[in-house]
Amino acid sequence: DYRDMSRKAANYIGALIINKPDCVLGLATGSTPIGTYKNLVAGYENGDYDFSNVRSVNLDEYKGLPKENEQSYYYFMHDNLFSHVNIDPANTHLPDGTEPDSQKACEEYNKVIASMGGVDLQLLGLGHDGHIGFNEFDKETHCVDLTEMTIEANKRFFNSIDEVPRQAYTMGIATIMRAKCVLMVVSGKDKAEILKKSFFGPITPQVPASILQLHPNFVLIADEDALSAL
Ligand code: F6R
After folding, report:
1. 2-19 vs 34-45: helix axis angle to the nearest 10?
2. Is the pLDDT of residue 137 over 90?
3. Is the CB of 127 under 6 A from ligand 1?
4. Residue 66: predicted pLDDT
């Protein structure tokens, strides 16, 4: 179930933190990883995990939302993880949602990722349309128009659908595929069909997550509901 999935995912990430204290974690937002972060915080509190040298890069950020906005992914990461563990804020990175120049925002983020030597472990959720990050098949960090399905799915966090930003800066598939390890967490019946399509169907740009079939070190941790279409 969701609790098992979250605990196992946190253990997997925690093992990396123990083995490589200055690892680069690629992090995701959304509902699914919240339990994973709760378990990581618990592991920090009981002394298992030390984040003091851990570095992080997040998958994406809404274009137009400042850090103080409660719906920004920056805010989410602070609320769910960063402010509860001893990670150095200077070691945490997200695309700059307040940079109006998309090209500049994306180039700068690519530089940040490159300067860290790439991602050791990339945590992913799975979008209802198979997106990872907010990706189509672009290469590096880029600006995307969010699909109607994603705007609809994410409106639950905002007061109204009109407040949901229409664009985001997202890490590209090439960056995700270069991560040494990719860990995906998927929960719920509403993800069952797209999970099946992603990993038991053809590799196609229509289902961006399907590219992960080619990743040499991919781990999926899902609950029974999400696996129910297999
Ligand atoms: C999050 C992200 C998205 C989500 C996906 C699933 O940073 O980029 O790809 O992982 O939309 O979201 P949830 O977990 O809310 O169903």
Report:
1. 50
2. no
3. yes
4. 95
